[in-house]
Write a structure and sequence with these properties.
Layout lengths: L1 H5 L10 H12 L3 H14 L2 H25 L23 H17 L2 H20 L5 H20 L5 H4 L3 H17 L7 H22 L2 E2 L4 H28 L4 H26 L4 E2 L15
Antiparallel strand pairs: 1-2
Helix pairs in contact: 2-6, 3-4, 3-11, 4-5, 4-10, 5-6, 5-7, 9-10, 10-12, 11-12
């Protein structure tokens, strides 16, 4: 059993230049670069309710993955087998790519609730998971635990009915819970908490605040021509990339401790995604105002 879960010698005969390109393509879908672009684009140009929920789910899942990695401290496969040099010295268990793939694509399938979409999302999940084995960034145990953790997280979120918490409850409640969870996780972390942990917390707080304010003031919708949604996505993605570059430049100049700066960075990103960019796109008449949220390419079922 140990050999089955940890030995990747069987991968070597399968490798070829063509399959390596395919594996790198699938594995890119699990990196932060893709996630940080895909979720805002979906929120601005597809369905803001679905992608706000997804943003919360991804942030929580990333926090859980970091916690489990530092708790188990399980090493990755040997360097001589590895074909993904972007993982650095991070631990392997559970596989973050697999966990995020399950959370992202199966949650979208759960909300869209179309058979063809379930099939497409399932293939992507499988492709991302297998790519981590092919590239020897993880062993079988890492991938299985990542898939299980992602699945459990999905089940818990699917049971949460009151998604209106950010809208109806006293704003101090969800924001206070996010801040409390962040402070507790940094204080009780096994060893020193990674700098991206406070970023996740800041992102949750900023996104929650921005979403609440946006719903009460702008309340944008995507009931516009397809070309306008496409243009909104392009402009939004370029602006978001420039915004992140600006944050990086500012962070290099501010005399703040990394943990504090990452929290502030996450807060700024959350506000930009859920409030600032929607306001800009409405002003540009690329999104509608006070028009609801469910004009999507595919019918999205209500959850909660």
């Amino acid at each position: 059993m140990y050999e089955l879960l940890h030995n990747l010698d069987w991968v070597l005969p399968l490798r070829s230049p063509g399959l390596t390109h395919v594996a790198n393509g699938f594995t890119w879908l699990g990196y932060g670069t893709f996630l940080l672009l895909a979720i805002p684009l979906g929120l601005w140009a597809w369905n803001k309710g679905t992608f706000f929920r997804l943003l919360v789910l991804i942030a929580v899942s990333a926090w859980l993955n970091a916690l489990f990695k530092d708790y188990f401290q399980d090493p990755r496969p040997p360097l001589e087998l590895r074909m993904d040099d972007r993982v650095g010295e991070s631990y392997g268990l559970p596989s973050g790519h697999t966990q995020m793939a399950v959370v992202l694509w199966l949650w979208l399938a759960y909300e869209v609730r179309r058979l063809w979409f379930w099939l497409v999302c399932s293939v992507i999940c499988l492709g991302v998971s297998l790519s981590r084995l092919y590239l020897a960034a993880h062993d079988v145990e890492d991938v299985l635990v990542g898939a299980a953790l992602g699945g459990v997280t999905l089940l818990v979120f699917a049971r949460i009915k009151d998604w209106a918490l950010w809208n109806k409850a006293n704003l101090a409640l969800p924001v206070g819970l996010a801040v409390l969870a962040g402070v507790a996780s940094v204080a009780l972390w096994p060893g020193k908490a990674p700098e991206y942990v406070p970023m996740f917390v800041g992102l949750l707080v900023g996104a929650g605040l921005g979403f609440r304010i946006e719903r009460q003031t702008i309340d944008f919708g995507v009931e516009v021509a397809v070309w306008k949604r496409a243009l909104a996505a392009v402009i939004g993605s370029v602006a978001f990339l420039l915004f992140q570059k600006g944050l990086k430049a500012v962070g290099a100049q501010l005399p703040l401790e990394p943990l504090y700066w990452q929290a502030l960075r996450g807060l700024s990103m959350g506000l930009f995604i859920t409030l600032v960019m929607p306001w800009v796109l409405v002003k540009m008449r690329l999104l509608s105002r006070h028009a609801g949220e469910t004009a999507a390419p595919a019918k999205v079922a209500a959850v909660g």
